[in-house]
Amino acid sequence: MSHDASDLFLTLTPERVLDAVEASGVEANPVCYPLNSFENRVYEVELADRSRVVAKFYRPGRWSAAQILEEHDFLFELETEEIPVCAPRRFPDGLTLHSLGHIHYCLFDRRGGRAPDELTDANVERLGRLVARVHNVGARRPAEHRMRLDADFYVRRDLDWLEAEKSIPAPFAPRYLALAREIADVYERASAGVGVQRLHGDLHLGNLLFRDGLLRLLDFDDMMVGPPVQDLWLALPGRDAYTLRQRDLFLAAYEELRLFDHSTLRLIEPLRGLRLIHYAAWIARRWHDPIFPATWTHFGTSEYWERETDDLAEQLAVIHGAVAVAEPGGREGTSNGKGEEPELTNKDYFWDWEEGK
Question: Which of 31, 157, 313, 324 could serve as a FRET partner for 174 with CA atoms 20 to 30 Å apart?
Fold first, then answer.
């Protein structure tokens, strides 16, 4: 990523956004304001006909044009199957992706609604069927350019970067890195031979939208190639009995439309560990963006890394306990081997999560 592209991205203004939209042949009114997003820059724009669209400017250096277009193609495939998602609009030249310098951007129709705070049993079943439909489409063809959910791409490269940048304070670095690499090794062994396909990849409740009885999936920015269980555990991340019961409801509804490999439930706790590591590295990689220090004020302190290291140690114990429970006759992922349930928080796992979102 060039410094010019990074500087322009960090200093995007409504005026520059409107100029980019109009340069693409879309006539807009002088109405533009930012929407909440950490990874990208997202603006609501009023068009000349008074309708509203969402202009999304992708963080430069994260996805190539080919990777973004695979996201767009997946969304169009889903939309063709009448699956409620939000596919990009085409510009007058028929393309879905334009560039402002080295910053790729696109437009989406504005969709109103609310994200659920929690899921009722009925909505869990609806979500199970909806995800099965998404996975049916996702399995039809590969995504050559998108990220693969594996130990190397999702964790080891982040750990190498954290170590090279000396992002972790010296007193905690050896233990943190050793724990993280062990979690990566466990996932690699546990996921060997597991089938992978195109997924949403970041399917937490903040990426669901309810309006007028319709449940819609949003934000395929983290679309990836991985095991289908990734889209299950993020939607229902808890370990408690209530969540496990809802997981059963989800899977029963899912299997009305698509088979699910129940043996892959053993991957949930290793995937949770990968997410913790990737999340910390994500913040560290974005620290030059003023939004991040302003939001994660405690990040980078000794107290932060001490807690992260302890969390990884606890998660590794949970992983080993879950592996034991996953033996024949057991139930995958229901125990941490200690008879305790560590507290889970949305901010520990979910990109762009905001309280009250």
Answer: 324
The residue from 93, 150, 160, 202 that is catalytic is 202
Dump pLDDT digits (tens) for 231-273: 999 999 999 999 999 999 999 999 999 999 999 999 999 999 9
Burial code (b: 16+ CB inside 10 Å, e: under 16) for 204-227 equals bbbbbbeeeeebbbbbbbbbbbbb
Instruction: Work out the number of other CB atoms within 10 angstroms of the CB of residue 154.
Output: 21
- Whether the per-residue pLDDT at 351 is higher than 60: the answer is no
- 202 flagged as catalytic: yes
Q: What amino acid occupies position 278?
A: H
What share of the chain has pLDDT > 90, as a percent?
81
Confirm whether 73 is a catalytic residue.
no
Burial class (CB in 10 A: 0-12, 13-18, 19+), 328: exposed
Calpha distance 13→9 (Å, rounded): 9
Give which of 26, 7, 224 is closest to 103, Cα–Cα: 7
Say if strands 214-217 and 224-226 run parallel, antiparallel, or are unpaired: unpaired
> Which pTM was predicted?
0.88
Q: Which of 150, 219, 221, 352 is catalytic?
A: 219
